[in-house]
Q: What sequence folds into this?
């Protein structure tokens, strides 16, 4: 019998057993000494390094970081006066009116009950950005408040005033007058955040002050319908009512976001405004009390696959100009409806939200260089950016009828129809009927829509419409520019 072979085989099994034991305890508390498993110091260090690489920079505890950051986080309580509409008569109901005589029956016995006012209180969070008392929070936390009280982590309270606010991004800047210098946060760079990075939130959920929660960045650039400048950081760090306006920190202790919104139906889905957006707005909020944004004077829409095909575009990236406001910067520069904006000041425009954010950040009074696609060719324009007006949004006679195309019937716009629809431009054709289940209905067209273009050809009369539409019928689809109310948009009608 070859004892050396037997001993060698047993030794191999022993070594294999050591590796199996090591694998099973590699991510535990590490109570098994390395020496008992036959590892040297170099092996131990190698495993420790690989474990650190797997867990990133996540600490064993967030306690030290939270202790350092909490003094710069504040609780915000507000009070505002709300008027009620008085007590509503229970008999003001069509089902009861014929029996009790409606509201008069109630008034005969109880008289008129006047409106009442009561104080509504709400809670939120914020964070100190300067030693002299400037604080960032959400606009909805302090909007229409009669009184705002800021409570520091040491229990001191100060009355605050609103120095600036922006409803579009839900950001507000408060100011308190402290007795001494205050602890402040360090504002980071939210553009460097990556999906999967650790973050912690500190705030005042449900009035529970200085609450700390941790999670990761779940997504970036989220559009949730909160406004035209949506660009939210999504996180699964617990955010609840009262967290609004509080900071979202990275593991370096830098603020990377302002906690703002939650999905009430779900768990672990919260949204924060990128701190880069707030930093860009800070000078304007301090100086003017509002945010001054750039304005081109165009209305834009996204590019669908059908639109891209009709415009012979290679991709659906960019923003399609659906309307150019007369006399505004883009109009003066020569931009036209149907142009596709693909770049501004060297920044690629991926979609309409990207365009709106870029334009908003351009300094008013400066020149912007736009690259657009027109008829398949790239062109460059220089536009003098002005201040965005808050009122603007970026994003019946018996005339002869034209017959039916794609399940819709149109007629020429008469002065009477123009007056009825409130149109300044009485040229073109109006859709009078859209058949159920027709291609026009599937494209989203409605009776009352005005057809301004067909396949990029202007339509100013019924005759022009019939001409361009007859040529368009040879294709698989037709691209139309529609005016609905004060808005314009492109739509593709497919056969």
A:
């Amino acid at each position: 019998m070859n004892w050396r072979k037997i001993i060698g085989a047993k030794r191999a099994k022993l070594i294999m057993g050591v590796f199996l034991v090591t694998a099973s305890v590699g991510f535990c508390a590490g109570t098994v000494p390395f020496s008992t498993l036959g590892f040297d110091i170099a092996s131990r260090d190698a495993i420790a390094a690989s474990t650190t690489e797997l867990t990133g920079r996540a600490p064993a505890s967030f306690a030290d970081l939270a202790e350092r950051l909490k003094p710069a986080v504040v609780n915000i309580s507000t009070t505002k006066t709300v008027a009620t509409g008085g007590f509503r008569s229970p008999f003001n109901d069509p089902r009861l009116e014929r029996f009790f005589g409606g509201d008069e029956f109630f008034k005969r016995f109880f008289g008129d009950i006047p409106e009442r006012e009561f104080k509504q209180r709400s809670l939120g969070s914020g964070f100190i950005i300067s030693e002299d008392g400037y604080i960032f929070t959400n606009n909805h936390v302090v909007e229409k408040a009669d009184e705002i009280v800021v409570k520091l982590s040491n229990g001191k309270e100060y009355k605050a005033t609103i120095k600036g606010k922006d409803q579009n991004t839900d950001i507000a800047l408060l100011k308190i007058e402290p007795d001494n210098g205050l602890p402040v946060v360090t504002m980071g760079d939210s553009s460097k955040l990556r999906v999967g990075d650790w973050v912690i939130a500190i705030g005042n959920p449900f009035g529970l002050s200085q609450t700390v929660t941790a999670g990761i960045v779940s997504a970036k650039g989220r559009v949730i319908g909160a406004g035209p400048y949506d660009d939210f950081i999504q996180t699964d760090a617990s955010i609840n009512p009262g967290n609004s306006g509080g900071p979202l920190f990275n593991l370096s202790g830098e603020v990377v976001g302002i906690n703002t919104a939650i999905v009430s139906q779900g768990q672990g889905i919260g949204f924060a405004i990128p701190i880069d957006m707030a930093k860009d707005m800070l000078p304007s909020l301090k100086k003017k009390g509002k945010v001054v944004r750039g304005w081109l004077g165009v209305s834009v829409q996204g590019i669908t696959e059908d639109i891209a095909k009709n415009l012979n575009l290679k991709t659906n990236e960019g923003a399609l100009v659906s309307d150019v406001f007369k006399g505004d910067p883009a109009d003066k520069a020569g931009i036209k409806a149907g142009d596709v904006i693909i770049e501004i000041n060297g920044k690629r425009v991926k979609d309409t939200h990207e365009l709106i954010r870029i334009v908003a950040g351009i300094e008013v009074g400066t020149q912007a260089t736009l690259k657009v696609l027109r008829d398949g060719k790239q062109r460059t324009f220089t536009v003098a950016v002005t201040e965005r007006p808050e009122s603007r949004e970026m994003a019946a006679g018996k005339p002869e009828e034209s017959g039916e195309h794609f399940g819709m019937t149109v007629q020429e716009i008469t002065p009477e129809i123009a007056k009825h629809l409130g149109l300044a431009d009485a040229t073109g054709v109006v859709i009078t009927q859209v058949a159920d289940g027709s291609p026009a209905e599937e494209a989203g067209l409605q009776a009352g829509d005005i057809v301004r273009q067909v396949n990029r050809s202007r339509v100013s009369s019924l005759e022009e419409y019939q001409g361009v539409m007859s040529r368009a019928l040879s294709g698989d689809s037709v691209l139309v520019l529609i005016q609905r109310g004060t808005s314009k948009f492109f739509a593709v009608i497919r056969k």
